[in-house]
Structure formats: structure tokens, C-alpha cells
Amino acid sequence: MRNLDALDARILLALDADPRATTVALADRLGLARNTVQARLKRLEEDGQLREPSRRVDPAALGYPLLALITLSISQRVGQSTREPILRIPEVIELLVTTGDGDLLARVVAKDTEDLHRITNLLLEVPGVVRSNTTIVLLEVQPFSVRSLLEGHAGS
Amino acid sequence: MRNLDALDARILLALDADPRATTVALADRLGLARNTVQARLKRLEEDGQLREPSRRVDPAALGYPLLALITLSISQRVGQSTREPILRIPEVIELLVTTGDGDLLARVVAKDTEDLHRITNLLLEVPGVVRSNTTIVLLEVQPFSVRSLLEGHAGS
DNA sequence: ATTAATTTTAAGCATAATGCTCAATCGAGA
DNA sequence: TCTCGATTGAGCATTATGCTTAAAATTAAT
């Protein structure tokens, strides 16, 4: 897999700024030929650097305004078998295996604090989960974005 | 803002399963008229439930295979002024204000552990940051996805 | 049960994007 | 200077898009 060059980064940045932009619009904005943009995008996708787009659904707009990060401690023996039941809880929208005091980190949405309490109890009922630690997200200062990363590559 | 009905959820699910799907393809797959899908999608976007798509760039494919979650404790007085310098660090790809023992949670990518050390030091140099706690992500069991949430709504 | 309102469906149409191919041109490096 | 890879420009058939209009179907209310 090749590394990104500056042109790749510029194309990805333009796409980040306007994900709806067509190939034609990108080429126009960047002052490139349509074929060039089309070829680079194709290669970026083939190389796995540009994954499928995602249509972003806002959980808050779905009625889940509460976002929490729940650290879960898992008893040694069970290991992987705890993940599946956790993922079956619909409100768990992301699950990471981590180092540190916890073993799993779950990103959880909820309708309100009572709902969050219910979900926390669900998590504690999962076999192998011995402890949980809930952190509530008060503000998403910067939602997930790789823009700053790309900017470094584009400046060369 | 209206709540999602089952049809909305089904459309969003189909879009989640295949984000590249055209309106025509969605209508075909769901057995609906193109106009119906087009109108529902338009309304979902107008209501803010369906945000702009995002082209997903994999940080690992960009040369940042290490993912860490860094909890930052902030001294009382400074508050918001710490956020800006933190966001200027390119490797910070997400920043949340949280309750709990930390005050900020930064999602950080790095080229390797040494790079992560460098970034941690950068964070500690930010005025107002008094303590940091780094957790390394070993595995993304379930990347961010609202699919499970939507499935609940679609089943009615 | 009948009426009213909303939603879905169907068709048409102009414009634009897409995926593709081919050949010419450009640029950097051997 | 020669060569290889990337970029460019053009063309072309197919398809999606955004939009409008009107009929049919569904739902809610009286």
C-alpha cells in the first residue's frame, strides 16, 4: 500500500469539506482533470485508505440525546464471550477493547438518565462484567474527524 | 421534528448496509417507489436526522496504526481556553467534554508508541492541563454504528 | 360509513454524473 | 535523450438526479 502524497491528501480534504461533491466538482475545485481525480479516488479505495462513505445518523435526532462512555471490567476467564451479549444491547453504538483499569469501553446512547441507568444494569448483568464506570459526555467539542491529519500530508 | 417511523428506519438501515446505494437502488430493494424514498430522505435531511455523508478515511491506512484515548484533567480556572490548543494537535481526531475524574477525553492516533509519547507530552504542555491518563485501544470490536438502534425502530 | 387529508405511486423530462476507453501530452529520472 | 508513469482531454452510452403533475391508496376524523 502506497503512502498518501500531497495530491491524495488534497483530494481527501476536499472530500472531507464537501462529502457530497461529485468527481467533476472535485476536479474543478482542485484544478485537476476529472480523470485524475477519478483515478486517484479509485486507487485510494482499492488500497483501503478511503473506505465506504457512511450516511451519518444523529442519535440525538433519533431520541437518544444522552451520550455516555462506560468502562467495563471483565473477569479474566470469560474474555471474548462477553462481547457478543454486550453488542446485542442496541444502545451500545461502539465497543473497544482497551488497556488500563477497564477492559472494554462502550459508547452508549440513552433517552435520559433513567434510561442510562437501565442500560448500565443490563451491562452489569452480562456474565463476566464485574464492574462498570460511567462517564457522561457533556459536549462533543470535536466529533471524529481526520481533517487535521490530512492537512499535514497536504502541505508538502 | 417528527419521530422516525418504521419506514424511515428501514430506509436508513438499507442506507447503512450500503451507503453507496442510489435512491433508485434503495427503492428497488425496499419495494417502494423512487419518489417515496426520495421524499423520505429529503425530509430526514431537512429534519436533521440524516446528516451529511462522510467519506471515511482510515487513520491506520494513513500511517497511524495506534489509537489511544487520553483523559485530561483541567485546572478549574482555564476552562474553554484549553480546547483550542488541544485541537491544533493534528493527531487529536476527537475531543469530548466529560464528567468524571477527567474533564476532557481526546481520541488520539499515533504512528507508534514513541509518537504517542510525544503527543502525550504535547498535551501536557497545554496550559491548564494538569494530568493525563492514557488508554490504548487494542481492538475495535464494534466501530461507531447506529445500526442496532435503527433495527429497534424498524421492527414495528 | 363517508369524507377529508396525507402518503404513496407512476410517468415524464431536462440536466448532470458516471464508468469507461483511447490517444496525446507532460514530467521526472535513468 | 529516452522511457515510464501520471495527467489530461475528449468522446460516448448508461444511469441518477431533481423536479413536476396526477392518479391511486392509505389513514384519520367526523
List the helices and strands and how they pair.
Two copies of one chain form a homodimer.
Chain A (H helix, E strand, L loop, with lengths): L5 H12 L5 H8 L3 H13 L3 E8 L8 E9 L8 H5 L4 E7 L5 E7 L2 H13 L3 E14 L4 H8 L2
Antiparallel strand pairs in A: 2-4, 2-5, 3-4
Chain A binds a DNA duplex (30 and 30 nucleotides) through helix 3.
- Strand-residue proportion of chain A: 25-35%
Q: What is the terminal-to-terminal distance of chain A?
A: 20 Å
**Global geometry of chain A:** elongated
What is the CATH level 1 assignment of the largest domain in chain A? Alpha Beta
Biggest chain pair interface:
A-B, 66 and 66 residues
CATH architectural designation of the largest domain in chain A:
2-Layer Sandwich
Q: H/E element string of chain A? A: HHHEEHEEHEH
How many domains comprise the coordinates of chain A? 2
Largest sheet of chain A: 4 strands, antiparallel
Helix content of chain A: 25-40%
Number of helices of chain A: 6
What is the assembly state of the chains in this entry? homodimer
Low-confidence parts of chain A lasting 5 or more residues at pLDDT below 50? none
Query: Which fold does the CATH topology of the largest domain in chain A refer to?
Result: Alpha-Beta Plaits
Query: Overall pLDDT of chain A, averaged?
Result: 92
Q: Indicate the structural class of chain A.
A: alpha+beta
